[in-house]
Structures are given as structure tokens and as C-alpha cells.
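Both lines are quoted verbatim for reference:

——
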Amino acid sequence: AWSTIRGLWQTFSKRRERIDPEESGTSETRNFWMLPFLATLGYDVEKANAELIDGKTYAISHRAMNIGEFPIHIAGINDSLDRRRDNSGPRLSPHALVQEYLNKTEDHLYALITNGIHLRLLRDATRLVRQAYLEFNLEKMMEEELFADFAVLYRALHATRMPRQKGEGETSIIEIYHQESLEAGSRIREKLSEAVEFSIKQMANGFLKHPENEMLREVVAEGTMSADAFYLHSLRLIYRVLFLLVIEDRGLVFPDKGGNATKKQRETYFQYYSISHLRQIASRRIFVDGNKHDLWESLKVTFRLFEEQQSAQKLGLQALGSGIFEPGALGVLSHSIIDNAHLLEMMHRLSFFRDDERRIWVKVNYSDLDVEEFGSVYEGLLEYQPVFTDENSMPGFSFEKGDARSKSGSHYTPEELVRPLIKHSLDYIIDDCLKKPQERLKNLPANLPLKVMQEKALQAITVCDVACGSGHILLSAARRIATELAKVRTGEDQPSPAAMRSAMRDTIKTCIYGVDKNPLAV
């Protein structure tokens, strides 16, 4: 299959060069690339007629007739999956069209969409809290000859994994994969808590024991630095690593489409400065001299890129600011040394978790972890009290059972409580913004288009949680407002992921406020 598909790509690439950038290239994408590609994966694909549901037309381009008319929508190579081509074209973006169709039909649980560059598997999202899909970058896979990625695609998306007949989605292999991945996600979250606790102790003790950190040991021995203060610096260090792992895995290090960064700057960051580069080294620790401390010096340079705008600009980045990325956030650790062995052990534990059933190490997919997970990990740490220990006249760091959580009343709010809270406190306000925007904002000019008034009214909502903790409730509120904002902007019942990300950014910037006794929470 790999050999066949590489040949197809080479042929299609030559035809692609002749497609006018202003044209979608739909016929070429379908006939010379995606239809034979899908045939190699076992799909017997035929053109389909539009379907009418609840008075709306869903022009899904193709069906796989050998597996219960499985829906497949193929756009052109110059089309975006997340945006309509122009106002004269289809009423929805390809992604929104297929997602809305899945949500409304009882016949199909899954569908495929592609523009020849990206291939996405979509699932009915009516019972999910938010959008979810699986995406493969076909262009990168072919151009960089990523056979391992193709093997995953082939095994996950082969026609034999899909429902055999209409209405059989719940019993299909792909749905079994989906349910098992949810269970695996829960296991990873449990392991992440253990990994963070281990990593804090690993780094803290690595600093305390390094022979060149005499000044650090002195301030501990004299009592001028408390265990709480030392723990705060160590925690911020680990959370910096976690945060950068997430934005790297999600492709968010640089602004959309790279911002002002050149290709060379982006390549330089990922090759030399990224946490992903450090994670790669951690996976083959035997090639690194554990007694040296060059990796820590390198990591500090990476941190500096996100602390100072002057440094960030050199690689086309944006400084992050905020509590954990303030220049002094690491305190005494910034002037201390830790050897490669301790650092790499920390990176390994944060990057891989042990699957005891299969007896293997599994790489953690940080792009799929929600922000709430990090909040719940921190709240779990409140069960402990940081303490300094004495080990053969050498200071050490550890945790013992504490009462900080009960004293501060810190409790994680589960999703099943957050949802009704948001529904009863926010839904009626959103409804007013959509139906009576002028009543919500008295100074709106009457001649503004309704869409503009609705957008301004939604962005004028203010939500404040006066004991925000990990921000779980605020994030749910932000998603709820952002969903409606994206719907208003796009005119789609199921806005694309790109539209949702943009709306989410704007909502958090203008609508969301958090207060807490604990500075780390804020």
C-alpha cells in the first residue's frame, strides 16, 4: 500500500503544479489522488447525491458502497477544510458540513473528509463535550516519507475498521478504538500526577545535591529559604516544561501560519531549542554524559525565549509573560546547576508512562491533554506539604501528608457539576445576546447588522470566578461563549476548529476573569 500510494502522490504532484491557485483543483484531487488512495485502503467509493435533513441540504461528495454507504467528502487541494471558499459556494465549510451531517443523521457515527493535504476522521459530536476528530497530514507524510505515520493511518482508517452497515457505528472497530482511547486517556492522567510529583522531587534533589550549588545548600541550612518557597520554584519549573510540551505538540509555538517567523527560524527553534528536542534526547539517554550540565544551560536559554520579548523576537516568537514565565519565576534555581542525568530522568517521566498491562513505555500525547488536567494535577499536590530532609548532613527535599487543601478549601469541580452550573448561570444571558443584543448593550447603533450586534453583545459578557482554582469553570464558560461567537461569525451550526480557536482566544481575552487566594492558581 505504501509503495502504491507514494506512486500516486508523485503523479498527482506533477498535475498539482498545473492547477491554477485560484481554482479548487477538486477534479484532479479526487480522480488522481484521493479516490485511488481510498481504494488502496479498501473503500469502494462512488459519487453521491445530496441528502436533505430537516430542510437543509448536505452535499456529501462520495459514499463507500461496500460499507453501508459510509460518507466521504473530498474537497479540492486548494480548498481549506475549515473555511468556505467564497460566498457563492457551499453554505458551510467542508468540516462544518460533515460534522453537522453526522450530528443530525442516525445512520452514520463516523465520516471522512479530505482536501488531499489533510485527511480527517470525524465522529458524531452530539454526545461529546467539544469537537473531536483524528487528522493525518498526507502531504507531510508523503514528502518526508514518514512510513511509520502511514502505518498508523492504514491500521486506523482501513475500511475494515469502519461500520459494516448503516447504523452499526456503535459496534465498529473504530468505535472500540475510540472508547479504548478514552480509557487510556484516564490512565495517562493518573500517571501524569505521579510523573509531576516525581519530577518535582527529582529536580529539587538534583539541585540540592549538585556539588557546585553550595550557596543553595547554605540558604536552606540557614533557614533563609523555606521548603514552601523552594517547592514553588520547582513547581514552576515543571509547569514551564509541561506548558511548552503542550504548545509544541499542538503547533502553537508560533502564531497562525508562522506569524512573522521565517522557515529557518521555525526550523532552528525545533531543532535546537524546543522541549521536543530535549524529549528526543531523553528517549535515548545512554548517549548523553549524565555528569555534565549543558542540557540545563540549554533549557534556560529556551525559557529565556519565552520570558523576554527581545530574546523571543530573534526567532520570531512571542514572549509569554504570565506568572510561570516571569523572568524571576524560578528564583534561586536560575543561578544553580543540575546535571544531565537528573534532567533527563525528569524529561523521560513527563514524556512516557508505563503501560503495565503491555509492559511498555507509551509516549504521552500532550496535544490531547486539556488545560483542566494540569489544574487537577496541581490540586492533587495540595494534599502534600513540602519539607526539607537531612540525609547524611546533606539537605534533601520530599513531601509529607499535609492539610493545605482542606485549610484552603481547594476542591476539583468535576465536569458533571460544571455543566449544569454553566447551563443555569450562562445560557439565558447568551440567549439574550442573540435575541435582544440591543437590550444587552444600550449604546449600540440601531443600524448595525444583527450579526455584528450579536458578536459585540457576546464579547461584552463578563464571567468572574472569585475562587477560580485551576480555572475549570472559567474554561467551560469560555467554551460555551466561544461556541456561540463562532456560530455567529461563520453562520455554521458546527463551526470549524480554526473558527473555534479564534473565538476561544477572543472570548478569554475579553470575557473571562479569575480571582484566587493562591497566586499560582491565577
